[in-house]
Design a protein that fits this description.
This protein has 406 residues and is mostly helical. It is built from 16 helices and no strands.
Length: 406
């Protein structure tokens, strides 16, 4: 076989990665039929305040953070990932359409908490499964592809919502219809995704392997800097609320959200693959600096066109950082503890999101949107500079057996 064909064959993503991408697409199609309309639903229909919106999102993510750590630990303990991934997606698919029945802010809080718990159950085992079937040199691309498919679903969801709203459907019936793609998510996952072989942490490593330690200093430093960054990274619901403040209509909000995810979907595989070439830290730093510039722009925005341009810039932050961040976690941790390592990676921003969202909501109410969003930009810029204390991912040989043949 010619060398070029061998190279292309090695660069193909594992079927499990591609199928999990489809699962992410379907799940986010269901989720994003609802999410971009939540700020208007909570502050309008349910008559909640911006602080209540921040409380809902912050408590939901913080509660789910505990589940992320436990789920990652459990997936390492049992040595398998798929069952927990199915459970997590199933919980979210079942509870999310209940938004149609909410009549109080407390109802919305309960629904969001359970939905995010489902995300907590699935996130770490899913990422550990992607890492298990992907060689180190393709991890940025693999995680970038997974995020691209996630964002493709998040593109379709708002488009479906906008179409249904244009046809005269109300918010509550629209929320109920989100049950259909949620059901498809679980069916595809059960039928088409194959689990990785069980991990046996007690089995001695091969003599020629030199994996990084399970809790490397670089990994701990990265989590600390990530926590600081997340203090300035409040819920995207505030950006959608800002879009309405500067004159965007409710009917245009789903289209804006779809545009946001279209850019993310188009750029995420490229962004993840870029970290395979230039290094994880540089890619993440670039993404966080872009985030700071975007938030500063949202603080100063005065017209709807500003919001559209800023959401395009904001999308590049996700493309540059999401795949690179996950690949860095996989690079800095050992296969036998990768589930709990991804659990902590997902949990740290979740815990920090509660004070971040409360801080943004309170600053918004007391001083206005420019001060609240400008604070987020400042914290993100500081965190981007502090990333220099995080080492680049080691180039050590991956332990044998951690990447499966396609």
């Amino acid at each position: 076989m010619p060398e070029s064909d061998l190279g292309r064959r090695r660069e193909r993503l594992h079927p499990t990665v591609r199928t999990l991408g489809l699962v992410s697409l379907l799940n986010d199609l269901a989720s994003e039929m609802i999410y971009p309309l939540l700020p208007a639903f909570v502050t309008g229909v349910l008559r909640g305040s911006p602080a209540a919106l921040g409380l809902i999102e912050g408590v939901a993510e913080a509660t789910a953070s505990v589940v992320k750590v436990a789920s990652g630990w459990l997936s390492d303990r049992v040595g398998q990932r798929k069952a927990l991934v199915v459970l997590g997606y199933g919980v979210s698919a079942a509870v999310r359409p209940l938004t149609a029945l909410a009549t109080a802010v407390s109802h919305m809080l309960a629904i969001r908490v359970v939905d995010r718990i489902g995300k907590g159950v699935r996130s770490a085992p899913r990422d550990a499964l992607v890492a298990a079937v992907t060689p180190r040199e393709l991890r940025g691309r693999a995680f970038g592809f997974q995020r691209a498919m996630d964002h493709a679903g998040a593109l379709l969801g708002p488009l479906v919502a906008a179409l249904l709203l244009a046809c005269g459907l109300g918010l509550r019936p629209l929320f109920a219809l989100a049950a259909l793609p949620g059901l498809l998510t679980v069916i595809v996952l059960v039928v088409a995704v194959r689990d990785a072989p069980p991990v046996r942490p007690t089995e001695p490593a091969p003599a020629d392997a030199s994996p990084p330690p399970p809790r490397s200093r670089g990994y701990r430093r990265y989590l600390a800097v990530l926590a600081l960054f997340t203090l300035g990274n409040s819920s995207d619901a505030f950006l959608l609320l800002r879009a309405q403040q500067v004159g965007l209509s409710l009917a245009a909000i789903p289209l804006l959200w779809a545009f946001h995810h279209a850019v993310k979907s188009a750029a995420s595989t490229w962004g993840g693959a870029l970290s395979d070439r230039i290094g994880r830290r540089r890619a993440i730093q670039a993404g966080w600096i872009v985030y700071a510039l975007a938030y500063l722009g949202f603080a100063l925005a005065t017209r709807p066109i500003h919001v559209w341009l800023l959401f395009a810039l904001y999308s590049l932050y996700f493309a540059l950082s999401e795949g690179a961040e996950r690949a860095l976690v996989a690079d800095l941790t050992h296969v036998s503890t990768r589930g709990r390592s991804f659990g902590l990676y997902h949990a740290v921003p979740g815990v920090a999101l509660l004070p971040a969202s409360l801080l943004t909501g309170l600053l918004w109410q007391r001083f206005g949107a420019p001060v609240a969003l400008g604070t987020g930009a400042t914290l993100a810029a500081i965190a981007g500079l502090l990333l220099f204390v995080v080492p680049e991912s080691p180039r050590a040989t991956e332990q044998k057996g951690t990447a499966l043949p396609a």
